[in-house]
Amino acid sequence: MRTALEGAHRGAPHAELLSDGQKSAALVQEIAHWLDEAKAEEIVTINLAGKTSIGDFMVIATGRTDRHVGAVADQISRKLKEKGLSRVRVEGLEACDWVLIDTGDIIVHVFRDEVREFYNLEKMWSAERPGEPTTAH
Question: How much is the pTM?
Answer without folding.
Answer: 0.77
